[in-house]
């Protein structure tokens, strides 16, 4: 009997790999308990809202990715931000929608919401992979293979190239060493951002060309925010650019003439 592995579980396994490697070698988790709380809150919220809105039990892979992302990225001495961030993140999928699609990547929305509403209590992971390049290379190679299989590699590739382009531009404008401007992309936060947030199929425009254009603008807005000393610039850039692109796409589709093939049958 041939055993087939459900591709929906590839991303959760990969993000778990990031967590295990990062915490084993660099201890970047605040605590196991806080991460478990974030995951549990996301899963419970998904189960409850799935039953309320759709009347069925949903696959929990997405909720797990949201919860573990929150558990990795959020930094707080308290427990409640982990639970609240996961709940807000998952709820955003059900509440903030247009044309039956949610507008924000869930963890991006929840994290940005807490950073804006509780900046004295909540921060975001900012550690790097240290002076050893091999953990970063392993994660980037595995992540590239996974998103290649998912046909999303062009999005991550465009963002990374754009980031380097704008990093050198920032270095030229500010006079900072180029290595200092490039360094952030070597951190684990960027692994989650590049492989999960900007490539989220539910919150990206449909055209491959425009997917590349959108992430280019995400990198551009990130550069502008960094030049203005805005902390957590990539998260805020995606928070602004991603939903804007989705709404523009919806508006353009609404103005497209309906062809005979697309019109409902009489």
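^ structure tokens above, recovered residues below v
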């Amino acid at each position: 009997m041939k055993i087939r592995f459900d591709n929906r579980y590839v991303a959760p396994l990969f993000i778990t790999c990031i967590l295990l490697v990062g915490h084993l070698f660099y201890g970047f988790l605040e605590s196991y308990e806080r991460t478990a709380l974030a995951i549990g809150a996301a899963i419970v919220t998904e189960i409850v809202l799935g039953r309320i809105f759709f009347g069925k039990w949903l696959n929990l892979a997405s909720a797990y990715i949201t919860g573990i992302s929150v558990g990795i990225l959020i930094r707080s001495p308290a427990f409640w931000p982990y639970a609240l961030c996961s709940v807000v993140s998952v709820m955003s999928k059900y509440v903030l929608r247009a044309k039956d699609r949610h507008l924000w990547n869930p963890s991006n929305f929840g994290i940005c919401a807490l950073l804006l509403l509780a900046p004295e209590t909540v921060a975001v992971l900012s550690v790097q992979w240290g002076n050893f390049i091999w953990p970063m290379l392993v994660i980037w190679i595995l992540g590239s293979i996974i998103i290649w299989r998912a046909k999303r590699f062009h999005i991550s590739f465009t963002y990374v190239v754009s980031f380097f382009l704008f990093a050198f531009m920032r270095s030229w404008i500010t006079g900072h060493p180029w290595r200092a401007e490039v360094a952030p992309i070597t951190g684990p936060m960027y692994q989650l951002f590049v492989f999960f947030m900007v490539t989220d199929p539910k919150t990206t425009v449909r055209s491959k060309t425009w997917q590349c254009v959108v992430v280019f603008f995400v990198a551009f807005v990130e550069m502008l925010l960094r030049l203005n000393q805005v902390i957590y610039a990539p998260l805020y850039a995606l928070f602004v650019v991603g939903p804007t692109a989705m709404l523009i796409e919806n508006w353009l589709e609404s103005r497209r003439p309906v062809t005979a093939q697309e019109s409902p049958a009489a």
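The chain is about 65% helix and 5% strand.
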